[in-house]
Amino acid sequence: MLSFKPIEADNILALSKYFEYQQFRTCDYSIAGIFMWRKFFYSEYDIYENMLLFKVTYLNGAVAFTFPVGPGSVDGALTQLENYAREKDIPLCFCTVPLNALGVLEKRYGGRITHTENRDWFDYLYLCSDMQTFAGRRFSGQRNHINKFKKLYPDYRYVPIENGNIDKVIEFFGSYAEEHVKDNPIAKEESFRAKEILPYFERFGLRGGFIEVEGEIVSFSVGEIVGDTLFVHIEKALKEYEGSYQVMVKEFAVHEADERVTYINREEDIGDLGLRTSKLSYHPVHILEKYFVTVEESAWK
């Protein structure tokens, strides 16, 4: 039977090679995305015949699995999850199921599934070229903010994050979080886990940089590349520096995307209306749906 193990800094790098086999482009298959939320959504993993499997246990005790990824057999992995659920006498449920994976589950179980969606956890996917240039009338607002920033701070510079300056970023984020983190459990968890992951920046192969004005950080962003997608896991800026967010978005795309990258995933809005409005204003090419799926017992027991 499967034997799930907790996700920790010492084992998560061994899982990253499996992410390259997924075509979903969702943040649920990325090192930092999984590591940052591994405690909030208690996540464990196992590997079965070259397939990576995750088990998630929610605060109410409910258990769900993510859709298996890897070079092995999806059907074989799903059979193992069925066996596990049967042995543990728990419902067979799947969480954060991308739209194209939903079709696989519907086919396997003959449509004997129910699925729900939570718009708050959909990912926003953008063309990298759009974020690098902000070309065209639809991005005139972003260009105006950037031009204002450049006029006010003509000597600003983008500095790549590395071991030599990561402590400066951690210090900035510490003071930022004290004043700007919203008073809700998800925002607090995101802030806490963002601070936790920064010391692993180089070890996890993350990418990022900060905008510096007169020697002081005014914004920074951290992400990673999986396949053809650059993920933005952390993005913080001081709003009193008008245009700092827009400049950060553009500079991050220009400096951190390489020849592999076609898309940029700016992740979820977690139901924050202001964040949703902002993410939509950058004109995503796709909003990546994710579903919670429950398989009827008659289809697998």
In which range does the helix fraction lie?
Answer: 25-40%
Structural class: alpha+beta
Count of extended strands = 14
Using only CA atoms, what is the Rg?
20 Å
Q: In oligomeric terms, what are we looking at? A: single chain
**Can you tell me the residue ranges where pLDDT is under 50 for at least 5 consecutive residues?**
none
Order of helices and strands: EHHEEEHEHEEHHEHHEEEHEHEE
Question: Distance between the terminal alpha carbons, to the nearest Å?
Answer: 16 Å
Q: Treating each run of at least 4 consecutive H or I residues as one helix, how many helices? A: 10
- Taken from the alpha-carbon principal axes, the silhouette is elongated
Integer average pLDDT: 95
Instruction: Give a short account of the largest sheet.
Output: 7 strands, mixed
Strand content: 25-35%
Strands ordered across the widest β-sheet: 8-9-10-11-12-7-13
Overview of the molecule:
The chain is of the alpha+beta class and 301 residues long. It is built from ten helices and 14 strands. The protein has a seven-stranded mixed sheet, with helices on both faces. A four-stranded antiparallel sheet has the order 1-2-3-4. A three-stranded antiparallel sheet has the order 5-14-6. It is elongated, with a radius of gyration of 20 Å. It starts with a strand and ends in a 6-residue tail after the last strand.
Tag the structure with descriptive keywords.
14 strands, 10 helices, 7-stranded mixed beta sheet, 4-stranded antiparallel beta sheet, alpha+beta, 301 residues, 26% strand
Present the secondary structure layout.
Blueprint: E1 5-6, H1 16-19, H2 31-37, E2 42-48, E3 51-57, E4 63-65, H3 74-88, E5 92-98, H4 99-108, E6 113-117, E7 123-127, H5 128-133, H6 140-152, E8 157-160, H7 166-180, H8 185-197, E9 207-213, E10 216-226, E11 229-237, H9 244-256, E12 263-265, H10 273-281, E13 286-288, E14 290-295
Parallel strand pairs: 11-12
Antiparallel strand pairs: 1-2, 2-3, 3-4, 5-14, 6-14, 7-12, 7-13, 8-9, 9-10, 10-11
